[in-house]
């Protein structure tokens, strides 16, 4: 008797294969994109050598957010305080404690819970999202609402999960903001600028191989660029690591046809992970 084949640790028995097929159809993968099937088990060999990653052009705002016109007078001082606290943290636990205690961000006053991270900090893939919503604010964990459930489905389709203990198959999830903006409004420039020292240190301490920039706010914060529908799928560098902008799961839930491109981005992520492993 032969064992069921596996793909990235998922046993491809008939029921799993059918579930994956149904999920792909739900994601909009309903027609072949290539003339011939791709042997994904042979990808690592085909991908060598890996094409160099082209950094996107950085805009000055990303490098010096404190100098943006219109920010409050004390923004630079609060950024400096955040930088000092973040630099002094030598572990994720101490970073979380320092960031939670930091009073330089007004949002803290209106939020119910601090949302530091979720998943496995040893994961090879770090997802950087925007900010907690209502459910995240209740639970104190990022991406646990409807968009988060969809995010779990998306990444589960390439064998990655926030609950995985194996770093190869795990996800680590962080937001640009750790406190909920009232009414789920977009984070403003001051909030992003003051949060970024903590985010940079967070990425440094977690040390992922790859970063997913989930939507416009993380692209603005890390690359100084917005326009996720143009940026998505283009590998770049953020925090000194390969980074892939992707459309946010909340956007995909509102715009199902965009799931097709998101699926292509997930496959690109799986390919890059595979090529970095060999
Ligand atoms: N959207 C995000 O970007 N992050 C969350 O934690 C929840 C929704």
TrEMBL record:
Its EC number(s): 3.2.2.27
InterPro entries per the UniProt record, alphabetical: UDG_Type-4/5, Ura-DNA_glyco_family4, Uracil-DNA_glycosylase-like, Uracil-DNA_glycosylase-like_sf
CDD domains: UDG-F4_TTUDGA_SPO1dp_like
Annotated keywords: 4Fe-4S, DNA damage, DNA repair, Hydrolase, Iron, Iron-sulfur, Metal-binding
Pfam families: UDG
Residue ranges of domain Uracil-DNA glycosylase-like in the record: 116-267
Catalysed reactions listed for this entry: Hydrolyzes single-stranded DNA or mismatched double-stranded DNA and polynucleotides, releasing free uracil
PANTHER family reported for this sequence: TYPE-4 URACIL-DNA GLYCOSYLASE, TYPE-5 URACIL-DNA GLYCOSYLASE
Family designation: Belongs to the uracil-DNA glycosylase (UDG) superfamily. Type 4 (UDGa) family.
Protein name from the UniProt record: Type-4 uracil-DNA glycosylase
